[in-house]
Design a protein that fits this description.
Blueprint (H helix, E strand, L loop, with lengths): L1 H20 L1 H40 L3 E5 L9 H10 L5 H10 L5 E14 L2 E11 L3 H4 L4 E4 L4 H5 L4 E4 L1 H7 L9 E4 L2 E9 L4 E2 L2 E2 L3 E5 H8 L6 E5 L6 H15 L11 E4 H44 L1 H9 L4 H38 L7 H27 L3 H6 L2
Parallel strand pairs: 3-10, 5-7
Antiparallel strand pairs: 1-11, 1-12, 2-3, 2-11, 4-7, 5-10, 6-7, 8-9
Length: 414
């Protein structure tokens, strides 16, 4: 055991000495491995960061532990036949059904309603087209975890009496009241003057659609102004995460019972929630990783080819050394291991340096894109493991060539 330990220790120091004797060549050899490992880790961090960013944006839009029931909705693309079947079969959710759910759901902490429409808003010479007019119940403030920078949200009493009050998004505020507070001012929606009582905190965009071009009014007033008859969206939320899935199941069962659907019948409405979106994002990011990561691995393979070429040069340069060692009793396996350790050491060092480069790169990319880049342990293990394997594989042929050298012929090459 002591002899075996001594051999590997000596082989390691000989490999390290050989690398340090040719510093420039070693650095140029490592570049491919460093870039390859850094590319894999940065791409992995970007994919993880993309998922985190999108999920965070969804949470800002929908809130946490939040589900929605409506006529047609899905977190993923439906096959054409499924979409057509549901489009024919599904029915809008009525106000009466919303009230039934609101009064009978026990597991949901909040049950609210929402209606959507669009309108152009003009005040004097200023016009803002395609503002999203959203009619909501008072508890949508809690359901969607909204934050106001000015004023307040409307109350249950204001919803019940069709009060002409509203909360505007940051874009609407900047358009009409850039240098003054909008609280107490009015904007007309379809000719109806709405008194502004609050301003929502800036939320940014989601899939290219601004979330700050919104104008929230009581859902009762919304129905009176637009009278579209498109039904309502029912929104539910639980305070505790453990109650979330049971609450969704209760909501589905309650509405099915209201619509007198049999157990085997397909539901005539849709339910979506943030958890489903997380699963969809997992599928999307996994698909991206399956395509992108193998492409970045090509850089590591190129780096392995460079390592092989350098090791072949090293074998040629050290022919006399190999012959001398074999003449002194070194076996083929010992010569083979010597060169394998050297090539593996090169790639492991390159992998470690690549990790540090990746850490710096992820910080820069994260700051540039405004995203949280997360270096996951899986991609670290993958990149360093693959670089180590490439080091061994790349060193196999040069090591085999060195091990087969005839000591007499090798000693003649001085």
């Amino acid at each position: 055991m002591a002899q075996l330990y001594s051999f590997y220790l000596d082989a390691f120091w000989i490999a390290l000495k050989s690398i340090l004797e040719h510093k420039l060549r070693a650095i140029l050899t490592l570049v491919g491995i460093i870039i390859g490992v850094a590319a894999v880790v940065v791409v992995g961090a970007s994919i993880a960061g993309l998922k985190t960013y999108v999920v965070d944006q969804v949470s800002k839009v929908l809130g946490s532990n939040h589900y929605m029931m409506t006529r047609m909705a899905s977190m993923e693309r439906l096959p054409d036949d499924v979409f057509e079947r549901r489009n024919r079969r599904n029915k809008k959710i009525t106000w009466d059904e919303y009230e039934f759910l609101r009064d009978n759901l026990k597991l949901s902490s909040y049950v609210g309603a929402q209606m959507n429409a669009g309108a152009d808003i003009q005040e004097g010479s200023i016009e803002m087209p395609s503002v999203r007019i959203i009619g909501v119940t008072d508890n949508m403030y809690e359901i969607e975890d909204k934050t106001l920078v000015e004023g307040r949200f409307f109350s249950r009493e204001e919803v019940d009496r069709f009060a002409a009050v509203g909360i505007i998004g940051a874009d609407v505020k900047d358009k009409f009241f850039e240098f003054e507070s909008p609280i107490g001012k009015t904007l007309k929606v379809r000719g109806v003057p709405i008194t502004i009582i609050g301003v929502e905190q800036k939320r940014g965009s989601f899939f290219g659609q601004s979330q700050d071009r919104n104008f929230y009014i009581p859902v009762t007033l919304h129905n009176q102004i637009f009278n579209r008859g498109d039904g309502v969206q029912v929104h539910g939320k639980t305070i505790e995460k453990k109650d979330f899935l049971p609450a969704i199941e209760e909501a589905e069962t309650t509405l099915r019972n209201k619509r007198q659907l049999m157990g085997s019948e397909e539901s005539t409405f849709s339910v979506v929630n943030v958890d489903e979106f997380n699963k969809t994002m997992d599928n999307i990011t996994s698909a991206i990783a399956a395509v992108v990561i193998p492409i970045t691995m090509i850089i590591l393979i190129v780096g392995g080819i460079v390592v092989m070429n350098i090791m072949l040069v090293s074998v040629t340069e050290r022919t006399f050394e190999v012959g001398l060692r074999k003449a002194l009793g070194a076996t083929r396996n010992q010569i083979l291991l010597q060169f394998l350790i050297e090539s593996a050491l090169l790639c492991v060092v390159g992998g470690i340096i690549g990790l540090f480069v990746a850490m710096g790169a992820t910080q820069l990319v994260g700051m540039a894109l405004g995203m949280t880049m997360t270096i996951t342990m899986g991609y670290v293990i993958l990149s360093v493991g693959v670089s180590s394997v490439i080091g061994v594989v790349a060193g196999l042929y040069p090591a085999w060539k060195a091990a087969r050298l005839d000591p007499i012929v090798a000693l003649q090459k001085t």
